[in-house]
Amino acid sequence: MLDKFGIAKRIAKEIKDGYYVNLGIGIPTLVANYIPDGMQVVLQSENGLLGMGPFPYEGEEDADYINAGKQTITTLPGSAIFDSAMSFGMIRARKIDLTILGAMEVSENGDIANWKIPGKMVKGMGGAMDLVASAENIIVAMQHVNKHGESKLLKECSLPLTGVRCVKKIVTEFGVFDVLPEGGFKVVELHEGVSIDTVKQYTNGKLIY
User: Considering just the CA atoms, what is the radius of gyration of the chain in Å?
Assistant: First the structure.
């Protein structure tokens, strides 16, 4: 099975040359470290940055340069910094080719829940709702099961929804899954050492293999 770094590295293979990519909070931010050499990709952070680079080395952090998750980052030559109004204008105008998000739950229809757990305090919904409403291509990076060992790939989401029928692909510690237009999680690949029986055991939504 893959750890969070392995999930990020696998998702990086889905990025194509010339893409503008938004990285959400959590595992998706790690994707910045695995962009293939020689590939021209522009990473966008919703707090107002185009041209985000990999994480800085220890001791080289600059607290003025952060991503949407408040982690320190680097910038690349030619990067641009602007206000959040311009950033969300870019998102809403569908200038982003690929959005990579974390999630607490995804349904077999591609619904995503990733912003609130009832009864727990949140600072706000963030930019996820704009991203899922505007993006043409959404990949979710998440653990297949929650801390209680329960499936996060479900028939229907139980948590408040962020977006409806928007997720196209999911990468978990078990494998890679396409969300089909007609509904269902199609197994694209299983990671080394993972059996289909394991995936069936921990997937509550419709699984196609």
Answer: 17
C-alpha neighbours within 13 Å on the C-beta side of residue 67: 26
Q: Which tens digits make up the pLDDT trace of 39-55?
A: 999 999 988 999 999 89
CB neighbours of 104 closer than 8 A, spacing ≥ 6?
113, 114, 117, 142, 146, 152, 159
The number of helices, as runs of H, and strands, as runs of E, in the chain is 4, 13
- The residues annotated as belonging to the active site are 46
* pLDDT (mean) for 72-82: 93
Strand ranges (E), 12-129 = 20-23, 42-45, 49-52, 75-81, 98-101, 105-107, 112-113
Whole-number Å distance between alpha carbons of 136 and 156: 22
Six-digit token string for 134: 């505007």
CA dist 17 and 42 (Å) reads 9
Has residue 181 got a pLDDT over 80? yes
**Chain segment 141-151, per-residue pLDDT in tens:** 999 999 899 99
Per-residue confidence (pLDDT) for residue 118, from 0 to 100: 77
Q: What's the CA gap between 53 and 35, in Å, rounded?
A: 9
AA identity, residue 119: G
Q: What is the pLDDT of residue 57?
A: 93
Instruction: Tell me the C-alpha to C-alpha distance, in Å, between residue 65 and each of 52, 53, 57, 140, 207.
Output: 9, 11, 13, 25, 41
Alpha-carbon span 61 to 73, nearest angstrom = 7
